[in-house]
Amino acid sequence: MLLSVSSCIRNNRKNDLPLRTVLVYMAADNNLSFYANTNIYSMNSSIKYGVDNTNLIVFVDRIDDVPVLLKLHDMKIDTIKVYPELNSADASVFAEVVDFVINKWKAESYGLLMWSHGNGWIPSSKLHFVDPSMYPSMYAPKRGSNDSLSVFYYDKLRNPFAETRAFAWEEHKGSKPEYYSMDLDDMVNAIPDGVFDFIVFDACYMGNVEIAYALRNKTRYLVSSCYEIMGYGFPYHIITKDLLNANLLKTCREFHNYYASLSGFDQMGGISLVRTDGLEGLANSFSKIISQAKDSIPDMSITDLQRFDRFNNPVFFDLEDFVNNICQDKALLTEFKTQLENCVSFKISTPYIFRNTNNQIEIKTYCGLSVYIPRRQYESSGLNAEYRKTAWSIATGY
After folding, report:
1. The pTM is what?
2. Which of the listed residues 275, 306, 336 is the one where a domain comes to its end?
3. Please, are residues 1 and 221 in contact by the beta-carbon 8 Å criterion?
4. Taking 70 as the threshold, does the pLDDT of residue 395 lie above it?
5. Can you give the three-state secondary structure of 312-380, one letter per residue?
6. What is the distance between the alpha carbons of residues 74 and 213, in angstroms, rounded to a whole number?
7. Mean per-residue pLDDT, 31-36
8. Are 80 and 52 in a shared domain?
9. Digit-coded pLDDT (tens) for 235-247
10. pLDDT digits (tens, 9 = 90+) for 250-272
11. Is residue 134 assigned to a domain?
C-alpha cells in the first residue's frame, strides 16, 4: 500500500477500454476563478509528453464566463462542450456532468477531483450571516464580496494572505450578494455508487470523518485536507501524471513537499489518504467510546484540543486528539487507534497553519481526519441539530 496505491486500483487491462478517466470538476464562479486558468495550464503542461491510455476531462465554471467541458491531452486543450449559464454549486449540475463524462469517456477506472472552496460537512443554511452583530458568534465564514469579512478577518487581516479554498460555492452579485453551495447529502447523492476509485478534494476543510463516512460507498480512496488549502491549490505541474496513474501516495507526498518548501504563511499544507473500506469499523469503535463519554462532551473544554480552523468558535478538531481526551478505557482506545490506522493510509502536515501571523495555529497532532464536537453553545443555532442528520452521527450515536 505504501509503495503505490495505484497497484490496488484496477491497472490490469481486461479489454480495449482506456485505463482511466479522471474528471476535474472546477466550481470556480467565485474569487478562485483566476487560479482555475492557472491550474488548467499547469495540468496540461504536466502531461505534455502524454500519459498512455488515460483521459483528463475538466469541467470549469469561471466568473463572467460560460461553463465549458475540456479535454487535456498532448499539449492541447479541446473544448468538448459549452454550457449555458448555470450554477456549478448545484448538485444536479454536478450529477449531470459526472454522468456525461463517465458515459462518454468509458474506462476501466475512474477518478474524480473536486476543485473549489470547501465548507466541510456544514450545510449551506448555517454558513453565512449578513448582520455584523452576529460575527462574534459565527462558526463559519461569510465568503466572497469585499463588503463582508469572515469572522477571523474581522480586523481586516485577510488582505496580506492569499485566497484559500471553502464545497462548492458560487457568488451572484447584485444589490445583495447571494451565495450558493452544495450540501453534503446532495453531493453524495450526485455521485454514483462504486464508480470512482478515488476522489480528491482540492478544497478547504474536506478532510472530515463525517465526509469520509458519507462517501464510503462512493469511492475506495479519499485525498483531502483537514484544514485550509492555499489558493493555488494542488501543484498540478507536479502531480497531474500521478493522479492519472492513480499514484495517490505520491500525490500526497508531492503536495506536502511543495508547500513545505515555501516560506512564511504560504508554508502550510496538511493532506491525508483515506481508505473507505475501514470506515465502518472506525464508526463501530467510535460509537463504543461515545456511549461512555456522551454526557460530558457538550461541556468539555476544547482549550487544549488540536483545532484546524481559525473561527472564533471552532468546529474542526483532530479526531484522534479528541478521542484521546474523552476515552478512559485503554482497551477501547487501542481498538480505536487500530481502526484509525486501517482507514488512514497516509497523513502529513506542515508544523503550522498561517505561520508567523496573528492567525497562526500550531499543528501538534494530525491524524488525517477531523471531527466536529457538538458543544452546548451550538444548540441554539441549530448546528447540532444539523449535525445529528449526518450519516456519521446516526451511525455512531454521536
Report:
1. 0.89
2. 275
3. no
4. yes
5. CCCCCEEHHHHHHHHCCCHHHHHHHHHHHHHHEEEEEECCEECCCCCCCEECCCCCCCEECCCCHHHCC
6. 37
7. 87
8. yes
9. 999 999 999 999 9
10. 999 999 999 999 999 899 999 99
11. no
